[in-house]
Amino acid sequence: MARPLAIVGGAVPGVLLVERFLRDDLGANPAEKLEHFTGTVALVTLLVCLTITPLRRLTHLNPLIRLRKPIGLWAFAYACMHFSCYLVFDQSLDLHEILHDIVKRPYITVGFSAFLILLSLALTSSTWSITKLGGRRWRGLHALIYLAGGLGVAHYLWSVKRDATVPDALGMILFVLLGLRFWRRPNVAQRQTNLSGS
Amino acid sequence: MLIRRPPDLSTRDITDESLYLNRRAWLAAAGMVVSALPTSRLWAKTLSLGAPQDDKPTSYKDLTTYNNFYEFGTSKEQPAQNAGTLKTSPWTISVEGEVKKPAKYDFADLLKGLPTVGRTYRHRCVEGWSMVIPWNGIQLKDLVAKLEPTSNAKFIEFTTLMDEKQMPGQRSGVLPWPYVEGLRLDEAMHPLALIATGIYDKPLLNQNGAPLRLVTPWKYGFKGGKSIVRIRFLRTQPATTWNIQAPDEYGFYANVNPAVDHPRWSQARERRIGSLLKQATLPFNGYADQVASLYTGMDLRKNF
Predict the structure, then answer these.
(1) Distance of alpha carbon B83 from alpha carbon B76, whole angstroms
(2) Does B248 touch chain A if contact means CB atoms closer than 8 Å?
(3) Cross-chain Cβ contact A105/B264 below 8 Å
(4) Does B76 reach chain A within 8 Å, measured CB to CB?
(5) What is the pLDDT of residue A198?
(6) Count of domains in chain B?
(7) Rounded distance, CA B92 to CA A24, Å?
(8) Is residue A12 one of the residues assigned to a domain?
(9) CATH classification of the domain holding B202
Protein backbone atom coordinates (compact mmCIF):
# COMPACT_ATOMS: atom_id res chain seq x y z
CA MET A 1 0.00 0.00 0.00
CA ALA A 2 2.71 2.43 0.99
CA ARG A 3 4.89 1.53 -1.96
CA PRO A 4 2.43 2.47 -4.72
CA LEU A 5 1.80 5.64 -2.72
CA ALA A 6 5.51 6.48 -2.82
CA ILE A 7 5.70 5.66 -6.53
CA VAL A 8 2.77 7.94 -7.38
CA GLY A 9 3.34 10.50 -4.63
CA GLY A 10 6.79 11.38 -5.91
CA ALA A 11 5.19 12.84 -9.00
CA VAL A 12 3.04 15.30 -7.05
CA PRO A 13 5.53 18.21 -6.71
CA GLY A 14 6.43 17.88 -10.38
CA VAL A 15 2.82 17.77 -11.54
CA LEU A 16 1.95 20.79 -9.40
CA LEU A 17 4.94 22.65 -10.82
CA VAL A 18 4.03 21.87 -14.43
CA GLU A 19 0.44 22.85 -13.73
CA ARG A 20 1.58 26.22 -12.36
CA PHE A 21 3.92 26.68 -15.32
CA LEU A 22 1.09 26.04 -17.77
CA ARG A 23 -1.05 28.61 -15.96
CA ASP A 24 1.89 31.06 -16.13
CA ASP A 25 1.78 31.17 -12.35
CA LEU A 26 5.52 30.93 -11.68
CA GLY A 27 6.09 34.67 -11.39
CA ALA A 28 8.31 36.96 -13.40
CA ASN A 29 11.18 34.50 -13.75
CA PRO A 30 9.69 31.03 -14.40
CA ALA A 31 13.00 29.55 -15.58
CA GLU A 32 14.63 30.39 -12.25
CA LYS A 33 11.61 29.07 -10.34
CA LEU A 34 11.63 25.76 -12.24
CA GLU A 35 15.35 25.36 -11.66
CA HIS A 36 15.31 26.22 -7.96
CA PHE A 37 12.17 24.23 -7.20
CA THR A 38 13.34 21.01 -8.89
CA GLY A 39 16.73 21.33 -7.18
CA THR A 40 15.20 21.79 -3.74
CA VAL A 41 12.75 18.93 -4.27
CA ALA A 42 15.63 16.65 -5.37
CA LEU A 43 17.56 17.40 -2.19
CA VAL A 44 14.54 17.12 0.11
CA THR A 45 13.52 13.82 -1.52
CA LEU A 46 17.04 12.52 -1.01
CA LEU A 47 16.82 13.40 2.68
CA VAL A 48 13.41 11.70 2.93
CA CYS A 49 15.01 8.62 1.40
CA LEU A 50 17.70 8.71 4.08
CA THR A 51 15.13 8.75 6.88
CA ILE A 52 13.80 5.33 5.84
CA THR A 53 16.49 3.22 7.50
CA PRO A 54 16.53 5.07 10.86
CA LEU A 55 12.73 5.05 10.85
CA ARG A 56 12.70 1.32 10.17
CA ARG A 57 15.04 0.66 13.07
CA LEU A 58 13.00 2.85 15.35
CA THR A 59 9.64 1.35 14.48
CA HIS A 60 10.75 -2.18 13.58
CA LEU A 61 8.50 -1.85 10.53
CA ASN A 62 10.66 -3.80 8.12
CA PRO A 63 8.48 -3.32 5.00
CA LEU A 64 9.49 0.36 5.12
CA ILE A 65 12.65 -0.71 3.31
CA ARG A 66 10.57 -1.19 0.17
CA LEU A 67 9.99 2.58 0.03
CA ARG A 68 13.68 3.35 -0.26
CA LYS A 69 14.08 2.53 -3.93
CA PRO A 70 11.11 4.48 -5.33
CA ILE A 71 11.92 7.52 -3.18
CA GLY A 72 15.58 7.37 -4.16
CA LEU A 73 14.64 7.13 -7.82
CA TRP A 74 12.38 10.17 -7.45
CA ALA A 75 15.28 12.11 -5.94
CA PHE A 76 17.26 11.19 -9.07
CA ALA A 77 14.33 12.14 -11.32
CA TYR A 78 14.13 15.63 -9.77
CA ALA A 79 17.92 15.95 -10.02
CA CYS A 80 17.54 15.17 -13.74
CA MET A 81 14.89 17.89 -14.11
CA HIS A 82 17.07 20.35 -12.20
CA PHE A 83 20.08 19.56 -14.36
CA SER A 84 17.96 19.84 -17.52
CA CYS A 85 16.77 23.30 -16.44
CA TYR A 86 20.39 24.34 -16.07
CA LEU A 87 21.37 22.86 -19.45
CA VAL A 88 18.49 24.47 -21.33
CA PHE A 89 17.57 27.69 -19.49
CA ASP A 90 21.01 28.74 -18.24
CA GLN A 91 23.25 27.40 -20.99
CA SER A 92 20.96 27.06 -24.04
CA LEU A 93 22.55 23.60 -24.53
CA ASP A 94 25.90 25.18 -25.44
CA LEU A 95 28.15 22.18 -24.77
CA HIS A 96 31.36 24.19 -24.73
CA GLU A 97 29.98 26.62 -22.15
CA ILE A 98 28.58 23.77 -20.06
CA LEU A 99 31.91 21.94 -19.83
CA HIS A 100 33.71 25.18 -19.08
CA ASP A 101 31.19 25.98 -16.34
CA ILE A 102 31.45 22.52 -14.75
CA VAL A 103 35.24 22.79 -14.59
CA LYS A 104 35.51 26.44 -13.59
CA ARG A 105 32.70 27.04 -11.07
CA PRO A 106 33.03 25.11 -7.83
CA TYR A 107 29.30 25.13 -7.07
CA ILE A 108 28.59 23.67 -10.51
CA THR A 109 31.40 21.11 -10.14
CA VAL A 110 29.99 20.01 -6.82
CA GLY A 111 26.41 19.87 -8.08
CA PHE A 112 27.47 17.90 -11.15
CA SER A 113 29.40 15.43 -8.99
CA ALA A 114 26.30 14.87 -6.87
CA PHE A 115 24.34 14.27 -10.07
CA LEU A 116 26.86 11.69 -11.29
CA ILE A 117 26.64 9.83 -7.98
CA LEU A 118 22.84 9.76 -8.15
CA LEU A 119 23.08 8.58 -11.75
CA SER A 120 25.30 5.64 -10.81
CA LEU A 121 23.02 4.74 -7.89
CA ALA A 122 19.95 4.88 -10.15
CA LEU A 123 21.68 2.67 -12.74
CA THR A 124 22.46 0.07 -10.07
CA SER A 125 19.10 0.24 -8.31
CA SER A 126 17.77 -3.07 -9.70
CA THR A 127 17.77 -6.37 -7.86
CA TRP A 128 19.86 -7.70 -10.74
CA SER A 129 22.57 -5.16 -9.87
CA ILE A 130 22.57 -6.24 -6.23
CA THR A 131 23.16 -9.88 -7.14
CA LYS A 132 25.68 -8.92 -9.81
CA LEU A 133 27.68 -6.64 -7.51
CA GLY A 134 27.23 -8.65 -4.35
CA GLY A 135 25.57 -7.22 -1.26
CA ARG A 136 28.68 -5.84 0.35
CA ARG A 137 29.94 -3.98 -2.72
CA TRP A 138 26.45 -2.77 -3.56
CA ARG A 139 25.97 -1.37 -0.05
CA GLY A 140 29.36 0.32 -0.25
CA LEU A 141 28.42 1.97 -3.52
CA HIS A 142 25.03 3.05 -2.26
CA ALA A 143 26.48 4.57 0.91
CA LEU A 144 27.62 7.27 -1.53
CA ILE A 145 24.12 8.71 -1.23
CA TYR A 146 25.36 10.52 1.89
CA LEU A 147 28.16 12.06 -0.15
CA ALA A 148 25.65 13.07 -2.82
CA GLY A 149 23.56 14.71 -0.09
CA GLY A 150 26.58 16.59 1.26
CA LEU A 151 27.58 17.76 -2.21
CA GLY A 152 23.98 18.79 -2.87
CA VAL A 153 23.91 20.92 0.28
CA ALA A 154 27.29 22.49 -0.60
CA HIS A 155 26.00 23.21 -4.12
CA TYR A 156 22.92 24.95 -2.69
CA LEU A 157 24.91 26.91 -0.06
CA TRP A 158 27.43 28.05 -2.64
CA SER A 159 24.81 29.25 -5.08
CA VAL A 160 22.80 31.54 -2.80
CA LYS A 161 23.71 35.19 -2.67
CA ARG A 162 23.26 35.77 1.02
CA ASP A 163 20.26 34.13 2.70
CA ALA A 164 21.32 30.55 3.47
CA THR A 165 18.44 29.62 5.78
CA VAL A 166 17.12 26.74 3.66
CA PRO A 167 20.44 25.09 2.70
CA ASP A 168 21.63 25.48 6.31
CA ALA A 169 18.54 23.65 7.54
CA LEU A 170 18.88 20.88 4.95
CA GLY A 171 22.56 20.49 5.86
CA MET A 172 21.66 20.17 9.53
CA ILE A 173 19.08 17.46 8.75
CA LEU A 174 21.63 15.56 6.66
CA PHE A 175 24.12 15.78 9.51
CA VAL A 176 21.60 14.36 11.97
CA LEU A 177 20.65 11.53 9.58
CA LEU A 178 24.30 10.65 9.07
CA GLY A 179 24.79 10.68 12.84
CA LEU A 180 21.82 8.36 13.36
CA ARG A 181 23.33 5.95 10.89
CA PHE A 182 26.62 5.73 12.79
CA TRP A 183 25.14 6.04 16.23
CA ARG A 184 23.63 2.59 16.28
CA ARG A 185 24.96 0.29 13.61
CA PRO A 186 23.20 -3.03 14.04
CA ASN A 187 25.98 -5.27 15.22
CA VAL A 188 25.20 -8.89 14.58
CA ALA A 189 27.43 -10.25 17.36
CA GLN A 190 25.98 -7.82 19.89
CA ARG A 191 22.46 -8.62 18.87
CA GLN A 192 23.11 -12.31 19.42
CA THR A 193 24.46 -11.71 22.92
CA ASN A 194 21.39 -9.64 23.67
CA LEU A 195 19.18 -12.45 22.47
CA SER A 196 20.94 -15.13 24.51
CA GLY A 197 20.94 -12.88 27.55
CA SER A 198 17.19 -12.32 27.54
CA MET B 1 3.28 -1.66 -72.75
CA LEU B 2 0.71 -1.22 -70.10
CA ILE B 3 1.68 -2.72 -66.80
CA ARG B 4 -1.13 -3.59 -64.50
CA ARG B 5 -0.46 -2.62 -60.99
CA PRO B 6 -2.61 -3.21 -57.95
CA PRO B 7 -4.32 -0.06 -56.66
CA ASP B 8 -2.07 2.03 -54.39
CA LEU B 9 -4.53 1.91 -51.57
CA SER B 10 -6.07 -1.24 -50.23
CA THR B 11 -9.18 -1.17 -48.09
CA ARG B 12 -6.88 -1.81 -45.17
CA ASP B 13 -5.26 1.58 -45.72
CA ILE B 14 -8.47 3.53 -45.61
CA THR B 15 -9.07 4.96 -42.19
CA ASP B 16 -12.21 3.83 -40.57
CA GLU B 17 -14.61 6.72 -40.20
CA SER B 18 -14.93 6.31 -36.45
CA LEU B 19 -11.14 6.52 -36.10
CA TYR B 20 -11.12 9.50 -38.41
CA LEU B 21 -13.63 11.30 -36.21
CA ASN B 22 -11.69 10.20 -33.18
CA ARG B 23 -8.62 11.87 -34.62
CA ARG B 24 -10.53 15.12 -34.85
CA ALA B 25 -11.29 14.82 -31.18
CA TRP B 26 -7.59 14.23 -30.56
CA LEU B 27 -6.62 17.28 -32.55
CA ALA B 28 -9.12 19.37 -30.66
CA ALA B 29 -7.71 18.10 -27.37
CA ALA B 30 -4.16 18.80 -28.52
CA GLY B 31 -5.23 22.29 -29.52
CA MET B 32 -6.64 22.84 -26.07
CA VAL B 33 -3.40 21.70 -24.47
CA VAL B 34 -1.35 24.01 -26.67
CA SER B 35 -3.60 26.96 -25.95
CA ALA B 36 -3.20 26.23 -22.26
CA LEU B 37 0.55 26.72 -22.57
CA PRO B 38 1.88 29.89 -20.91
CA THR B 39 1.34 33.18 -22.61
CA SER B 40 2.69 33.38 -26.11
CA ARG B 41 5.09 36.17 -25.10
CA LEU B 42 7.13 33.64 -23.13
CA TRP B 43 7.34 31.17 -26.00
CA ALA B 44 7.95 33.82 -28.63
CA LYS B 45 10.91 35.08 -26.66
CA THR B 46 12.09 31.60 -25.81
CA LEU B 47 12.06 30.42 -29.40
CA SER B 48 14.50 33.15 -30.32
CA LEU B 49 17.01 30.95 -28.46
CA GLY B 50 19.06 33.39 -26.50
CA ALA B 51 19.26 36.07 -29.17
CA PRO B 52 19.36 39.60 -27.74
CA GLN B 53 15.89 40.67 -26.72
CA ASP B 54 14.48 43.95 -27.87
CA ASP B 55 14.41 46.55 -25.13
CA LYS B 56 10.66 46.46 -24.76
CA PRO B 57 9.72 47.61 -21.26
CA THR B 58 9.10 44.81 -18.78
CA SER B 59 5.46 44.49 -17.71
CA TYR B 60 4.32 46.59 -14.76
CA LYS B 61 3.27 43.41 -12.99
CA ASP B 62 6.75 41.87 -13.29
CA LEU B 63 8.42 45.14 -12.27
CA THR B 64 6.33 45.31 -9.12
CA THR B 65 6.33 41.64 -8.07
CA TYR B 66 9.92 40.54 -8.70
CA ASN B 67 12.11 42.68 -6.46
CA ASN B 68 15.26 42.53 -4.40
CA PHE B 69 14.57 44.60 -1.29
CA TYR B 70 15.92 42.63 1.67
CA GLU B 71 14.34 45.10 4.11
CA PHE B 72 11.10 43.27 3.30
CA GLY B 73 12.46 39.73 2.95
CA THR B 74 15.06 37.95 0.87
CA SER B 75 12.81 36.30 -1.72
CA LYS B 76 11.75 38.08 -4.89
CA GLU B 77 8.05 37.96 -3.96
CA GLN B 78 8.32 39.16 -0.37
CA PRO B 79 8.85 42.89 -1.01
CA ALA B 80 5.53 43.13 -2.85
CA GLN B 81 3.85 41.14 -0.07
CA ASN B 82 5.43 42.90 2.91
CA ALA B 83 6.18 46.48 1.88
CA GLY B 84 2.73 47.73 2.87
CA THR B 85 4.11 48.60 6.30
CA LEU B 86 6.34 51.32 4.84
CA LYS B 87 4.91 54.82 5.36
CA THR B 88 6.22 57.16 2.67
CA SER B 89 4.34 60.31 3.60
CA PRO B 90 5.54 62.47 5.24
CA TRP B 91 9.12 61.68 4.17
CA THR B 92 12.14 63.59 5.40
CA ILE B 93 15.59 63.50 3.85
CA SER B 94 18.60 64.62 5.80
CA VAL B 95 21.36 66.26 3.74
CA GLU B 96 24.71 66.15 5.50
CA GLY B 97 28.48 66.39 5.13
CA GLU B 98 30.45 68.50 2.67
CA VAL B 99 27.56 70.69 1.69
CA LYS B 100 26.95 74.45 1.97
CA LYS B 101 23.66 74.10 3.85
CA PRO B 102 23.17 70.83 5.73
CA ALA B 103 19.46 70.50 6.39
CA LYS B 104 16.48 68.24 6.68
CA TYR B 105 14.14 68.49 3.71
CA ASP B 106 10.63 67.38 3.16
CA PHE B 107 10.68 65.06 0.13
CA ALA B 108 8.28 67.28 -1.88
CA ASP B 109 10.27 70.44 -1.07
CA LEU B 110 13.48 68.78 -2.16
CA LEU B 111 12.11 68.07 -5.62
CA LYS B 112 10.49 71.49 -6.03
CA GLY B 113 11.73 73.33 -9.09
CA LEU B 114 13.71 70.41 -10.48
CA PRO B 115 12.74 69.33 -14.01
CA THR B 116 11.17 65.88 -14.15
CA VAL B 117 12.30 63.38 -16.77
CA GLY B 118 11.12 60.03 -18.12
CA ARG B 119 13.85 57.52 -18.94
CA THR B 120 13.58 53.92 -20.08
CA TYR B 121 16.68 52.09 -18.88
CA ARG B 122 17.95 48.54 -18.92
CA HIS B 123 18.37 47.21 -15.38
CA ARG B 124 20.91 44.43 -14.80
CA CYS B 125 20.98 42.58 -11.49
CA VAL B 126 24.27 41.13 -10.26
CA GLU B 127 22.41 37.79 -9.97
CA GLY B 128 22.18 37.49 -13.76
CA TRP B 129 18.70 38.74 -14.67
CA SER B 130 17.62 41.99 -16.28
CA MET B 131 14.60 44.17 -16.95
CA VAL B 132 13.72 47.26 -18.96
CA ILE B 133 12.18 49.94 -16.77
CA PRO B 134 10.40 53.13 -17.79
CA TRP B 135 11.42 55.38 -14.90
CA ASN B 136 10.14 58.80 -13.94
CA GLY B 137 12.18 61.09 -11.76
CA ILE B 138 14.81 63.82 -11.76
CA GLN B 139 18.39 63.84 -12.88
CA LEU B 140 20.68 63.32 -9.91
CA LYS B 141 22.94 66.12 -11.16
CA ASP B 142 20.11 68.62 -10.79
CA LEU B 143 19.56 67.54 -7.20
CA VAL B 144 23.29 67.72 -6.43
CA ALA B 145 23.44 71.22 -7.90
CA LYS B 146 20.51 72.26 -5.72
CA LEU B 147 22.19 70.90 -2.58
CA GLU B 148 25.43 72.78 -3.33
CA PRO B 149 28.23 70.46 -2.19
CA THR B 150 31.51 72.14 -1.20
CA SER B 151 34.63 71.73 -3.32
CA ASN B 152 35.81 69.10 -0.80
CA ALA B 153 33.00 66.72 -1.74
CA LYS B 154 34.31 63.82 -3.82
CA PHE B 155 31.70 61.18 -3.05
CA ILE B 156 27.98 60.99 -2.38
CA GLU B 157 26.37 58.46 -0.04
CA PHE B 158 22.74 57.33 0.07
CA THR B 159 21.26 55.72 3.17
CA THR B 160 18.01 53.74 3.23
CA LEU B 161 15.47 54.09 6.04
CA MET B 162 16.27 52.09 9.19
CA ASP B 163 13.11 51.08 11.04
CA GLU B 164 12.31 47.48 11.97
CA LYS B 165 8.64 48.32 12.40
CA GLN B 166 8.28 49.58 8.85
CA MET B 167 10.89 47.27 7.37
CA PRO B 168 10.45 43.88 9.06
CA GLY B 169 13.30 42.31 7.10
CA GLN B 170 15.71 44.43 9.15
CA ARG B 171 14.99 42.16 12.14
CA SER B 172 17.15 39.57 10.42
CA GLY B 173 20.91 39.97 10.33
CA VAL B 174 21.12 39.05 6.68
CA LEU B 175 22.80 42.41 5.93
CA PRO B 176 24.25 45.12 8.17
CA TRP B 177 21.51 47.77 8.35
CA PRO B 178 20.85 50.42 7.25
CA TYR B 179 21.57 49.82 3.58
CA VAL B 180 24.18 52.25 2.30
CA GLU B 181 25.20 52.92 -1.28
CA GLY B 182 27.37 55.58 -2.88
CA LEU B 183 28.90 57.05 -6.00
CA ARG B 184 31.91 59.09 -6.93
CA LEU B 185 30.65 62.67 -7.37
CA ASP B 186 31.49 62.73 -11.10
CA GLU B 187 29.42 59.55 -11.51
CA ALA B 188 26.56 61.23 -9.68
CA MET B 189 26.83 64.23 -12.03
CA HIS B 190 26.50 62.00 -15.11
CA PRO B 191 23.32 62.78 -17.04
CA LEU B 192 22.25 59.09 -16.94
CA ALA B 193 22.17 59.00 -13.12
CA LEU B 194 18.62 59.35 -11.89
CA ILE B 195 16.65 59.81 -8.71
CA ALA B 196 13.54 57.83 -9.57
CA THR B 197 10.17 58.67 -8.09
CA GLY B 198 7.97 56.68 -10.45
CA ILE B 199 7.57 53.81 -12.92
CA TYR B 200 5.21 53.84 -15.92
CA ASP B 201 4.10 57.39 -14.95
CA LYS B 202 2.85 56.13 -11.58
CA PRO B 203 4.43 56.94 -8.23
CA LEU B 204 6.95 54.31 -7.13
CA LEU B 205 5.40 51.45 -5.20
CA ASN B 206 6.97 50.67 -1.82
CA GLN B 207 8.57 47.46 -3.10
CA ASN B 208 10.37 49.48 -5.79
CA GLY B 209 11.93 51.86 -3.26
CA ALA B 210 9.31 54.55 -2.67
CA PRO B 211 9.32 57.45 -2.38
CA LEU B 212 12.74 57.91 -3.99
CA ARG B 213 15.60 55.70 -5.10
CA LEU B 214 18.84 55.88 -6.98
CA VAL B 215 19.12 54.57 -10.56
CA THR B 216 22.49 54.12 -12.28
CA PRO B 217 21.73 51.97 -15.33
CA TRP B 218 25.36 51.16 -16.19
CA LYS B 219 25.90 49.58 -12.75
CA TYR B 220 24.50 46.44 -11.17
CA GLY B 221 21.10 46.95 -9.59
CA PHE B 222 22.28 46.76 -5.98
CA LYS B 223 23.92 50.18 -6.39
CA GLY B 224 20.46 51.71 -6.52
CA GLY B 225 19.69 52.49 -2.87
CA LYS B 226 15.97 52.58 -2.15
CA SER B 227 13.70 54.59 0.20
CA ILE B 228 16.49 57.10 0.82
CA VAL B 229 16.42 59.12 4.06
CA ARG B 230 19.94 60.54 4.09
CA ILE B 231 22.23 61.99 1.44
CA ARG B 232 25.78 62.68 2.56
CA PHE B 233 28.60 64.37 0.65
CA LEU B 234 32.01 62.99 1.59
CA ARG B 235 35.71 63.56 1.00
CA THR B 236 36.45 59.84 0.98
CA GLN B 237 34.80 56.77 -0.49
CA PRO B 238 31.91 55.59 1.68
CA ALA B 239 31.64 52.02 2.94
CA THR B 240 28.77 50.44 1.03
CA THR B 241 26.61 47.55 2.23
CA TRP B 242 27.33 44.68 -0.17
CA ASN B 243 30.96 45.68 -0.34
CA ILE B 244 31.20 45.44 3.47
CA GLN B 245 29.34 42.14 3.40
CA ALA B 246 31.48 40.42 0.75
CA PRO B 247 34.33 42.65 -0.49
CA ASP B 248 35.65 39.98 -2.87
CA GLU B 249 32.25 39.60 -4.53
CA TYR B 250 30.81 43.13 -4.69
CA GLY B 251 32.96 46.14 -5.45
CA PHE B 252 32.28 49.82 -4.84
CA TYR B 253 32.02 50.56 -8.56
CA ALA B 254 29.93 47.53 -9.58
CA ASN B 255 29.85 48.57 -13.22
CA VAL B 256 28.14 45.96 -15.39
CA ASN B 257 31.00 44.03 -16.94
CA PRO B 258 30.58 40.72 -18.80
CA ALA B 259 34.36 40.22 -18.74
CA VAL B 260 34.66 40.24 -14.95
CA ASP B 261 32.85 37.32 -13.36
CA HIS B 262 31.37 37.25 -9.92
CA PRO B 263 33.73 34.91 -8.01
CA ARG B 264 31.02 32.25 -7.91
CA TRP B 265 29.13 32.76 -11.17
CA SER B 266 29.54 34.14 -14.67
CA GLN B 267 28.45 37.67 -15.58
CA ALA B 268 28.72 37.05 -19.34
CA ARG B 269 25.01 36.47 -19.82
CA GLU B 270 21.71 37.53 -18.36
CA ARG B 271 18.09 36.41 -18.43
CA ARG B 272 15.78 39.19 -19.54
CA ILE B 273 12.62 38.92 -17.44
CA GLY B 274 9.93 37.58 -19.76
CA SER B 275 12.31 35.11 -21.41
CA LEU B 276 13.32 31.60 -20.41
CA LEU B 277 16.80 31.68 -21.93
CA LYS B 278 19.77 33.99 -21.48
CA GLN B 279 21.37 36.59 -23.72
CA ALA B 280 24.76 38.32 -23.80
CA THR B 281 25.45 41.04 -21.24
CA LEU B 282 26.89 44.26 -22.64
CA PRO B 283 29.81 46.23 -21.13
CA PHE B 284 28.40 49.00 -18.91
CA ASN B 285 25.00 47.40 -19.60
CA GLY B 286 25.07 48.88 -23.11
CA TYR B 287 25.84 52.44 -21.93
CA ALA B 288 29.58 52.30 -22.63
CA ASP B 289 29.45 55.15 -25.16
CA GLN B 290 28.04 57.45 -22.51
CA VAL B 291 29.91 56.39 -19.36
CA ALA B 292 33.16 54.60 -20.26
CA SER B 293 35.07 57.90 -20.18
CA LEU B 294 34.35 58.16 -16.43
CA TYR B 295 36.75 55.28 -15.91
CA THR B 296 39.58 56.10 -18.32
CA GLY B 297 42.86 54.70 -17.04
CA MET B 298 41.21 52.62 -14.33
CA ASP B 299 41.78 48.87 -14.09
CA LEU B 300 38.18 47.66 -14.21
CA ARG B 301 39.27 44.17 -13.18
CA LYS B 302 40.62 45.54 -9.91
CA ASN B 303 37.95 48.20 -9.48
CA PHE B 304 35.08 45.82 -10.15
Answers:
(1) 12
(2) no
(3) yes
(4) yes
(5) 40
(6) 1
(7) 40
(8) yes
(9) 3.90.420.10
